[in-house]
Amino acid sequence: MATMADVARSAGVSVATVSHVLNGTRPVLPHTRQAVLDAVDRLGYTPNTLARSLVTSRTRSIGLAVSAISNPYFTEILQGVEASALEHGYSLIIADPHDDPEHERKVVQLLHERRVDGLIVAPSANPRELVAYLGRHGVPAVFLDRLLDTPAEGTPAYDQVCAESAEPTARLVTHLAELGHRRIALVAGRPGLSTTRERIAGYRHGLAVSGLPDDERLLVHGNSESADAERATTALVSLAAPPTALVAANNAMTIGALRALRDRGLSVPEDMALCCFDDFAWADLFSPRLTAVAQPSREIGTQAVRVLLERLASPDRPTRTLRLPCTFVHRTSCGCPEETVRSEQPEKFEKHDKPERFGKSEKGTLS
Ligand code: HPA
């Protein structure tokens, strides 16, 4: 197998020059650069990244631990991470922690033992062991989607990237209230996740600004999954005073809610108006078309890589939380007529100025 020294000899340059050309570490004259690349081609040289890692203590790899990879929301995040990693010359090792704290700690340990330069993690609802492990071993990491609890004083221990959750959920509720609904239900996600907390806070805020009472019977738990959301929706429609409108707090729960309504012979939006958090490729194909909040999922992945690389370059910089805005995609499952919604521009949520309205959420920066 050809070595770097073989390439240098064949191109008539030093090994250092070959290294600079291949790693882009210093500018090299165009004809010298070409001579090196020709020699690489001629000899079929491939760099030995293991050997390089031994010298640099860097593997130019990122570990990504994300559960529910088959969920389109997370698949798009993954696409953003992968494309951005590749663009910066990093490879990716992916693990699925199955939203289980113990499994999560294990896969993160495996990724760390592989000596990834840093980690991107969508943490489970109970990431205590994970955080302890990362802290003990000083592993650079960025959290995405689900935020860590912010310490009473100071900033979270890790950089974080997520979408706004509270404001867009409130928007779905106020939209339904403006259409005349007085009993609006929420099918909420898995307890313990910051996204669940924030969407519940947004739901309550939307009710409050619409002058509607917060009836706890209308807040049910779909556990972020289709089957649980189906059960929760069935319970809702069986209430003595059922809701007339429903907000499903993620894409999987929207599917569950739709199943429950269909099985009961209820149609959307005539019997039940429906708005959902998460847009997805088929949301436009349902009949009626689904009114949804679209998360910037791919961008979350892209930004997570950017923040991680900045952390690797400057380990001591203060941590920060990026919150990316969502878009309100107005279709017809809310009950609005097709003619009205077709002519509208998508509505981008501005990042909110008064984040304290939603408790712990912080204003985002896209610096
Ligand atoms: N978080 C945020 N959005 C989502 C999720 C989640 O876990 N699942 C589907 N959409």
Automatic annotation (TrEMBL):
SMART domains: HTH_LACI (SM00354)
UniProt region (Disordered), positions on chain: 337-367
SUPFAM superfamilies reported for this sequence: lambda repressor-like DNA-binding domains, Periplasmic binding protein-like I
Domain of life: Bacteria
Comp. bias regions, Basic and acidic residues: 339-367
InterPro entries named in the record: HTH_LacI, LacI/GalR-like_sensor, Lambda_DNA-bd_dom_sf, Peripla_BP_I
Keywords, in A-Z order: DNA-binding, Repressor, Transcription, Transcription regulation
Gene Ontology MF terms: DNA-binding transcription factor activity; transcription cis-regulatory region binding
Residues in HTH lacI-type domain copies: 2-56
Pfam families, per the entry: LacI (PF00356), Peripla_BP_3 (PF13377)
Protein name per its UniProtKB record: LacI family transcriptional regulator
Native organism: Streptomyces guryensis
